[in-house]
Every structure is written in C-alpha cells, then in structure tokens.
C-alpha cells in the first residue's frame, strides 16, 4: 500500500479545524486613566485566535496569546466544527508581562462535553514542534481569524529571520506570512504538520514582517502553568556586560570570549553558583558564548541566539553547569535553575490585581512599570526620575491621581511623587502606610517624598487599601 505525501496546503487545511476564534469581553488595559486611577475601568470587546494543543492526555486546552485574554471578564470560543455556537472557557494561566506572549485557556468540563456533542468531527489537537528551530526559508502557513472574520484565514510565507531575547524579552521568529489583528494566538505550521510557533504580533506600518513565539517556549510555559498557575523562567540573577580585547590583561584572558558578570543579585542563580562580579561566563551546559553573549556554532550561521535565550529554556530546578574564567583559570560550577529574584519595582498589568489606597484626595499605588509608562505620557520628567530606582530591592509607593478640591490638591502635590516616610517611619507598601493611618485617626500625618516634598494631612476617617475590583 502506498501513501501520498500531503502538501503544506493540504496539511494546513486539516489543521485548520483545530484553530478557534476567541471572543472576549473585558477592560481596555492600555487606557492611561485606568492605570493611574484603578477605580476607572473602560469596558471593551475584542477577538483573537487560538488552537487546541496536544499535551499528554489533556482535553479541551487551548493555546493563545496572553494579550488576547489579559484583563478579560468573559472568554468564549467558536470553531468551524460547531458552526457559530460559542463555548465558555476559563484561564489556566498566562505570561502576564507578555514575554513571551502566551496563555493557556480551557473549555470547562461541561462546555467540553457540549462541544464534542455538537462537533461534526473529533477535535484536531495540534502538535508542538520537537527538536531544533526551523531554518531560515522554511515554508509555513499562519492560521487564524484576522479582523473578526468568522471563518479561519490561512496565509503563506516562510521563516525569514530571528530576533534574540534579552534579560527582559524572549526569542522570536520573523515571518513574511501576513499576521493581522485578530490573527494573534493562532498557529504557524510546517510541512510536517507541527506548530513551529504562535502568531504573536505584526509591526504597524511595516510590510510583510510578523513575529512568531517559538514552540520551545510554548512547551515550557504549558508545563509551568499546569504546575504553578504562573510561568517562571530560569534567570541568571545578575547583570552582564560584553567582553573586549582591552580586558585581556585585566581579566588574564588570552582573547575576549564569554561575557563579564558586572553584578550578582542576592538570592539569584549566579550567587547560588558562587559566581562573582568580574568572572567571565564562557558556557552554560556546554553551550559556548562569544564576547557578545551569542551562542557559538550550535545554531548554525547567522543566528543570534544568546545566553538569555539558553537560560530561559532550562526547566526550573534542573541542575545547570557553568563554565567560567576567574583569574585566568577556566573553572566549572553547578547550581539549580531558578527564577530571577523579584525586585521592588514590578510589572502589574492585570487590572483586577492592582491594589491602591485612596486617601487625602489622592490615589496611591505600588510603583510598577505600567505606571511609569503611563506617567511618561503626562510628565516625562517624573518618568525619568522613576527610572533611576528600577533596581530598588523594596517596593515604592507612588501618587498616581489627585482629586480636585481635596487636601492633596490644596497642597498642590504633583503627580508621580514617591512616598518614602509617614510620621518619620519608612513606608514601602500600602499595608505599611495603612497601619500608620490607623494609628493616627483624627490626628495629622506627615508624609515625606523622595524628592523632599512633604505634606501634612488630617486623617479624617478610616481609609483602607482597595483592590481594583471587576
């Protein structure tokens, strides 16, 4: 019996039945007002794409982009297998900071049973690519529901380039396959019927340039989400700088190879491995790096996979071997992979998770990257001041909104002030500040800011830290 090899078009048409449209009701997170004053929420509706993923014995699990379901209140899917019927889903977990932009959702038990009963054929579960990344020029098909179309769309192209990750970002593939709004979260598939990655983004005003999140990252995220409900990537736990030939006599190196450790963070991976500042990291698990931190050789010519990409794909808890240079001697050490230690200034993009205190006519929140970005739109100078404290180990409190005709308005407190003391006591969290307010009901409280600005406020009534409720 002979079998006919299917074309990429035929394979894509078959896999198309595993791709779903995602319908979302939620809040528009990019609205500056809601970032600076979490009591303000701007409702909206939008759509995206996703696909049923094959993972062990799981049923009804769907991969999509985190930005599709982030700040969602209600999520439904529809599929070409079930006409225009919609089915409710729930979020298993997501990469909240969108690096990489991946989320996992699932049909509830009841909805999965209803879906299977109505479907005209069994669900097509798509397989994530195994092994090495695709080479440049490999043909792919991107599948999704762009611009709210009710039927799945298929566009052809190839892998055209690669973008390395960094301390804060993850690797992406570049493609010339058309990826439009609404396509986000759909799969890009190859001739073997495997998902090479997740359609993630398109550059506005650029032609034929789209980004794909590699399948290797999706795999590790699914594993972490199922175990922890929130993914954590392995991090180096320190700062690096490029090596150079000028350092040869100082570092006692024969030539510039590997990257220099400029800072070791407390309770991080490098500290656990007993790596010190001015050590030169030459390799991780036998993968060697040049002076720019780029992988040497293993990924082929013209690839810029780097030390951050390599580290992020090591499962948390797995032992990692580091080759390094110290005082001219090549040495090796080991430590278990772990997430980077969390600093005081974090990212908090989920509206419902934001906490704030409304007191003296102002909104006070823990400082986050989202707040820094929003304040930049209002006062670029304040944003520059905030960027100076990103490496603070403890949280910071920031004034993000002033109500007119209130105590804070009368004292002309500016937006973006960082509160560091209350009645001469250091405050880093809303709970710290709340305790001092509770002890001084009916009295006055002196607030002091990092800039030196002070405020003397009457505590008129009980004020409690609030969650940004849906």
Automatic annotation (TrEMBL):
<dbReference type="InterPro" id="IPR051201">
    <property type="entry name" value="Chloro_Bact_Ser_Proteases"/>
</dbReference>
<dbReference type="GO" id="GO:0004252">
    <property type="term" value="F:serine-type endopeptidase activity"/>
</dbReference>
<dbReference type="InterPro" id="IPR036034">
    <property type="entry name" value="PDZ_sf"/>
</dbReference>
<dbReference type="InterPro" id="IPR001478">
    <property type="entry name" value="PDZ"/>
</dbReference>
<comment type="similarity">
    <text>Belongs to the peptidase S1C family.</text>
</comment>
<protein>
    <submittedName>
        <fullName>Trypsin-like serine protease</fullName>
    </submittedName>
</protein>
<dbReference type="InterPro" id="IPR043504">
    <property type="entry name" value="Peptidase_S1_PA_chymotrypsin"/>
</dbReference>
<keyword id="KW-0645">Protease</keyword>
<dbReference type="InterPro" id="IPR001940">
    <property type="entry name" value="Peptidase_S1C"/>
</dbReference>
<feature type="domain" description="PDZ">
    <location>
        <begin position="235"/>
        <end position="290"/>
    </location>
</feature>
<dbReference type="Pfam" id="PF13365">
    <property type="entry name" value="Trypsin_2"/>
</dbReference>
<dbReference type="Pfam" id="PF00595">
    <property type="entry name" value="PDZ"/>
</dbReference>
<keyword id="KW-0378">Hydrolase</keyword>
<dbReference type="GO" id="GO:0006508">
    <property type="term" value="P:proteolysis"/>
</dbReference>
<dbReference type="InterPro" id="IPR009003">
    <property type="entry name" value="Peptidase_S1_PA"/>
</dbReference>
